[in-house]
Structure formats: structure tokens, C-alpha cells
Amino acid sequence: MSTPSKPLAGIKVLDISRVLAGPWCGQMLADMGADVIKVERPVAGDDTRHWGPPWLEGTAESAYYLCANRGKRSVTIDMAKPEGQALIRQLVAQSDVLLENFKVGGLKRYGLDYASLKTLNPRLVYCSITGFGQESPYAHRAGYDFMIQAMGGIMSLTGKPDLEPGGGPVKSGVAFTDIFTGLYAANAVLAALYQRRDTDAGCHIDMALMDVQVGVLANQALNYLTSGKVPQRLGNAHPNIVPYQAFATFDGHMIIAVGNDEQFRRFCEVLSLSELPTDARFATNGARVHQRETLVPILQAALAQRTTDEWLAALETVGVPCGPINTLDRVFDDPHVKARGLKQTLPHSQAGVVNLVANPIRMNGESISASTAPPSLGEHTDAILEEIGISPAQRQALQEAGII
Prior knowledge:
GO terms for molecular function: CoA-transferase activity. Helices cover 37% and strands 15% of the residues.
């Protein structure tokens, strides 16, 4: 439910998406104060409810579902049936935003496509999330994060070089493209709502996972477009900065992220290699990139002589960016993560409490993260349908017919 002090208080979002990209967008809007109504299939619900283990203890809620649905209300409606479609249209009439990630054209047969709903609610901001967009040679294809990571180039850049042991393409450890698409979609929705203040008209937002994946190739895309050379996998190294990678220490590994020549000078002094910054081969970042194969083994040999904690203490003292490679238990035990409240514990209707990751946005010193847990399936069906005038007797009949 919306909170009066939050930026999107008073905005109603109908979220008929499922899995990750759409729900991630909806969760962002819920965190900002929108009333996000999650429409799910009766009995089955969002696919991700079944993507476990692990499960929240004492419930059938998967951890995967919990990661993308805080702050929402859940209503179960079978939109494949005319009565369900009629309920969706009643909700649309009172909504500001609709989120969907059905295949291109999939909602037209239900009368729930943008062209149909625009006539019902001209101010509706309708956001479609698909693999390849509404107009594409691939528009008919389903889009999955893993597949898009491969097609969109990021897997050609991630992993060790082919000739090294363990070399080959590697996907991100989380659904990188889905999450970015959800964030881009939320930004687009906010822009459309802002524009609507002047035009009094909604719009159709066309988000494609493939577009987003290409869009976030960032410096690597420009490396190719500028030079014409196809970037290759470098493992944990950086294509444009040296040294900027993982190094082995006496007892583990750490990250060194030297961003300029002055930092390199201080780094070398700590390593007792003060002659390196005066060597023309290594004096500038551009030179170091060209001499990567020569320089990195020298640095690696020095870093292997002391423990990670010893290097971290010495390098932080002189302002050289560095850090440990933490497992998730260490992440959530980190003083920064604790101080910033990134682990959020909320009441849960079935489990008592649930641990979540808070939204990282802070406004006026406070997290904007929603204060309600991801809803159980159909938890708010009665309340939501009552708000659009569906009487208890009507709800009973709809339930008996399997519509809700």
C-alpha cells in the first residue's frame, strides 16, 4: 500500500507481469510508494513461487519469489476467462500504470492490449516487457535472461580467455539482464507519469531485454564501435585500466582497482616497487594497458607475499582502492551493510517474519524500501475486489467458478 510520505503515493500500478523483469519494476515502484496490485493465476500464482528450494520456513514461498515482490498486494484472477478479463478492465479503469510481460500480441485476444485499454483509460501508462520488443525480426520469440546474455554480447566479455584453464563464456551470477530491464522500465514509467502531468495522456512503453542488454554494454560497446576491434574475455581484468583486477594473496584473493597514475604510484610504494612508476613502460595508464602482460606478473609476485587483510590495511591507509572478495555470509556481516540497513526484516503473514534485501535508494537519510513483505498468493483478493465494487456474493460466485 502507498505511504503518504513517499514520492509515488496515490499512484496505482496493476502488475500482471511475472518472473523477474516486470516484478522487479513493480517492486521498485512499490518501494517509492505506489499501490502495486500483483495479479496472479488462481492456485498456481507467479511462476517464481515454485522456483525453489530454498523456501521461506513454514511456507510454500520460494526465496526467488520473495526477492522481487515486496510492498505489493496480491489478487488472483483467471484472465483467460471473460469474467476475469472484465475484472482486469475494472482495475485498469482505476489504475495509472499497467505492467505486463506477455509475448507480443498475447494479450490482444483477451482485449487487454494497449490499444483496447487506451480507450478505457486514456491516461494509462502501459509498459510492455518482452525479449525483443514489439517490432523486431525476433518479436515472436520468447526472451529469457540467460539466452539474452548470450545473444546480447555480455557472455563474450565475461569469463577467462578461451586458452586459459577454465576459459570460455560465463553468465552473470544473477539475472543481470532481467534486473536491468526492470530498472529501465521503472525509469520509463516515472518519465511517462511526469510527462502525463502536461499531456493528460498515457503512453505505451516498449521495453526489450535484448535492447537493454546491448544498452548496458557501456564502455565495451564503445571499445568496439570506436576501434573496430572485438573485445575479448579478460577474466577479472579490465580492458581499459591496469591494474584493475583480482590478485592472489598469501591466503586468498583481493581486488585492486587503481584508477589513476597517482594511485598507481602509492600502490607501488606499499608493494616496495617504487621504481615501477618511473619506468616509461608503466608510467601512465595507457602504457600499463599495453604492457599488461609484463606488469601484472610483477605485481602478482609481490602481492602473494602477504595476507589479504595485511594488504587491505596497508593500501587503505594510503587511499588505494581495494577490497576483499566476500561470500554472501560475509557481505551481510559487513559493517557497511549493517549500518546502511541493507538486510530488512519484515512481518510475514505466514512465517512471522521474513528477511529481505532493502532498496538501496535513500532519500532524506531514510531507505525508501517498502514496509510490507511479499504477499502470499491471493492475500488481498477480497480487499482489492471490494475496492472496485465486487460484492461478497459476487466474489463467492467468482471463487466457485474458479475465476478468482
